[in-house]
Write a structure and sequence with these properties.
The complex is a heterodimer of chains A (114) and B (111).
Chain A: E1 5-7, E2 10-13, E3 19-24, E4 31-37, E5 43-50, E6 65-69, E7 75-79, E8 88-95, E9 104-105, E10 109-113
Parallel strand pairs in A: 2-10
Antiparallel strand pairs in A: 1-3, 3-7, 4-5, 4-8, 6-7, 8-9, 8-10
Chain B: E1 9-13, E2 18-23, E3 32-38, E4 45-50, E5 53-56, E6 61-64, E7 70-75, E8 84-91, E9 105-110
The chains are: A mainly beta (114), B mainly beta (111).
């Protein structure tokens, strides 16, 4: 079946502009995560959605970052007034939730802020 | 969250068994140990997960001693396609299961 998809695959934007990144999780997966990966580094947790519960936003680095999820489907990560340090690959993952630790990752969106 | 420490890089040759050890001295009682693999320009891929003793699947084995302060991922007879970054993670049993990734171990398999 279809895996996690993300769009766009690459995004180049000018400093100060807003960007919106999209994630389509695997159907039936109640949990959805956003991570950021800077070049050569591990992943940083950003935000977690589980069903209809309030999202865990504890990893968002600043109030310029926000994310929404429609039910148990599509999620969008918005970065306002982008800065050069926002340049990274943004990865989305979904899982069945509950006791499952296995997360399925999308291919990521490479964001470059010039 | 328990911090993990693993070697930055390892080299091996095709056909050899590779063991990557990760230390997690502050692991909590309800924490599970999970390993992921990441190829360049791709998202991480789940390999294996365990709580204690030994777990084996079609890809790898995971050895966890009784004190659970470390774990070893064992890859049997590696091939060139196993060249990747391997992440050891400790995930809490309750609440969110967002994963804390360290820098991982970069495995280079030579012909």
């Amino acid at each position: 079946g279809a895996g996690v998809s993300q769009s766009p695959s690459n995004k180049v934007t000018e400093k100060g502009k807003d960007v919106e990144l999209r994630c389509d999780p695997i159907s039936g997966h109640t949990a959805l995560y956003w991570y950021r990966q800077r070049l050569g580094q591990g992943l940083e947790f950003l935000i977690y959605f589980q069903g209809n519960s309030a999202p865990d936003k504890s990893g968002l680095p600043s109030d310029r970052f926000s994310a929404e999820r429609t039910g148990e489907s599509v999620s969008t990560l918005t970065i306002q007034r982008t800065q050069q340090e926002d340049s990274a690959v943004y990865l989305c993952a979904s899982s069945l939730g509950g006791d499952s630790y296995e997360q399925y990752f999308g291919p990521g969106t490479r964001l470059t802020v010039t | 969250l328990a911090k993990t420490t693993q070697p930055i890089s390892m080299d091996s040759y095709e056909g050899q068994e590779v063991n990557i050890t990760c230390s997690h001295n502050n692991i909590a009682t309800n924490d599970y140990i999970t390993w992921y693999q990441q190829f360049p320009s791709q998202g991480p891929r789940f390999i294996i997960q365990g709580y204690k003793t030994k777990v084996t699947n079609e890809v790898a084995s995971l050895f966890i001693p009784a004190d659970r302060k470390s774990s070893t991922l064992s890859l049997p007879r590696v091939s060139l396609s196993d060249t990747a970054v391997y992440y050891c993670l400790v995930a809490p049993d309750t609440g969110r299961r967002a994963l804390t990734f360290g820098s991982g171990t970069r495995l280079q398999v030579q012909p």
